[in-house]
Amino acid sequence: MAARMDLDGRPIKPMTICMIGAGGFIGSHLCEKLMAETPHKVLALDVYNDKIKHLLEPDSLPWAGRIEFHRINIKHDSRLEGLIKMADLTINLAAICTPADYNTRPLDTIYSNFIDALPVVKYCSENNKRLIHFSTCEVYGKTIGSFLPKDSPLRKDPAYYVLKEDTSPCIFGSIEKQRWSYACAKQLIERLIYAEGAENGLDFTIVRPFNWIGPRMDFIPGIDGPSEGVPRVLACFSNNLLRREPLKLVDGGQSQRTFVYIKDAIEAVLLMIENPDRANGHIFNVGNPNNEVTVRQLAEMMTQVYTKVSGEPMLQSPSIDVSSKEFYGEGYDDSDKRIPDMTIINKQLGWNPKTSLWDLLESTLTYQHRTYAEAIKKSMAKPTAS
Questions:
Q1: What's CA 374's distance to the chain center, in Å?
Q2: Does position 107 have pLDDT exceeding 80, yes or no?
Q3: Which of 53, 208, 246, 296 sits a CA distance of 20 to 30 A from 337?
Q4: Per the confidence metrics, is the pTM higher than 0.85?
Q5: CATH class of this structure's domain 95-373
Q6: Helix and strand tally (H, E) in the chain?
Q7: DSSP letter at 5?
Q8: Domain boundaries of the chain, sorted by first residue
Q9: Residue 339 buriedness (CB in 10 A; 0-12 / 13-18 / 19+)
Q10: Is residue 95 within 8 Å of 207, Cβ to Cβ?
Q11: Is 356 helix (H, G, I), strand (E, B) or coil?
């Protein structure tokens, strides 16, 4: 493998990366990228390894010996500090990040995203190890624009809705709206990491993903996840499409979101890993402001894409409206728009996303149709116990 160079033309030394949450959607794509394109070694920590099994077996793989799986639940495992000490860099991807859980499991959500992350930050700081911590675009909460009168011309001014890492406020709903438990826990761990950097010299980078989409994301209930439970919007819609059910639009599907392809986003993470001088001390939005749609528009586009990739006819009524209370339970609230400002990541790392919304949906739905259609048929064909 030819020597890799960083953005400033210096050779990149092979490093050991402790990746917490390596078995998840983002972790699996990042592990693939690191194995295929770099000389780096990965200590892959997670409770499950289904999504990275293809990287671990057999021993004849070209990267054999560069990825080790450690089955660890970071809540209570004495091996965590030792693994962080063995590495040059720790990447923390572990989180509960499914919106339906924010209302129904607020304590688990707060513990998972704040309390469980504390030892990771502490061990990195005490052992002078660099940390890349995955946060969320949810830390921004609601836009300033959402508080303006509906007919205010200021709602169209980007200053009131484009989200900037260094200037946008983080505005959450009231305490009884437990949906904000996730965003609040994530914001507090960000503040703690930032304080460790300021007071104790921790080298850190914080990543705020804006809806990363692609193969292996989330779960399809009853197929590769629990039968009960509600995944995020794109997996919810995929699940409905695969099962030929109408797509459920919460509160009319008026919320607006941007979506970025996982392979584009992973390019950004690799730039952070290999350019510490440019990435340390920064918080980075990683999203695609060009791929903005309302949830209703997303449902319409996914229906069209799925019809194309599956060859199945569209349902007569492809979507239905449901209330947030009915769908998520009491205490739900939502952010109106999430458009990332890309100035900082563009200036520091020269990164821009490339993939259009149609293309990323086609890639994701093709994968899901191929992988899950057979499994769904099998699950539906299983005889019921008498």
A1: 27
A2: yes
A3: 246
A4: yes
A5: alpha beta
A6: 14, 15
A7: B
A8: 95-373
A9: buried
A10: no
A11: coil
